[in-house]
Specification:
Elements: H1 4-13, E1 16-21, E2 27-32, E3 36-39, E4 42-47, H2 51-59, E5 62-69, E6 74-85, H3 91-102, E7 111-124, H4 134-147
Antiparallel strand pairs: 1-2, 1-5, 3-4, 4-7, 5-6, 6-7
The protein binds flavin mononucleotide.
């Protein structure tokens, strides 16, 4: 059940990595650019080009979605059950919402996936071990992401 912190994180990031289980039992991990909180119990993502994810869910609803803030180096992992909708409601409402909020073109949206969240756990980088402050971690990461180099200039990679 997403709380306020979870909602803020998902809204700010708007993207998740979606893991499903293939029929042969092998995991399938798919980066999605589009993930939102749908309501108090569900995440939602449109299938723009995720044929493997959708096919997996048809046979096995087990799914995990990871949403991570790469700057603050925190996130959530959501375990749940995925259901695929291809027409009618709630498909139409989902497509309308993504069109309104993100300008998502409805044409390539083959289906919409609602994930009933059965459990949500925080993800925290080991960079926080030892009591490091979020501000410092975020500043360091921001510098790395923008310069692509070692911002501190000491050649050390921070853990996590
Ligand atoms: C940064 C990034 C963002 C992506 N966003 C989406 C997305 O929002 N929706 C989607 O269906 N596919 C998206 N994709 C493409 C799928 O991840 C890709 O087609 C993947 O191979 C689908 O795997 P699957 O068929 O196993 O689900 C994205 C890929 C990347 C690298």
């Amino acid at each position: 059940m997403p709380d306020d912190d979870t909602r803020r994180l998902v809204a700010a990031q708007g993207r998740g990595f979606v893991a499903t289980v293939r029929p042969d039992g092998i995991p399938n991990l798919s980066p999605g650019g589009t993930t939102e909180v749908w309501d108090d119990e569900h995440l939602v993502f449109p299938d723009l080009y995720s044929p493997g994810t959708v096919a997996d869910l048809a046979g096995n609803p087990a799914v995990e979605v990871n949403v991570v803030d790469p700057v603050r180096r925190r996130g959530y992992r959501f375990r749940g059950a995925g259901e695929v909708f291809t027409r009618g409601e709630p498909y139409d409402r989902i497509v309308r919402r993504f069109g309104r909020k993100r300008g998502t073109d409805p044409a390539p949206v083959g289906s919409a996936v609602l994930v009933r969240v059965l459990g949500a756990e925080p993800l925290v980088s080991p960079a926080y071990e030892g009591g490091a402050a979020e501000e410092g971690i975020a500043a360091h990461r921001r510098a790395r992401l923008t310069s692509g180099t070692d911002a501190a200039g000491d050649g050390r990679e921070e853990p996590g």
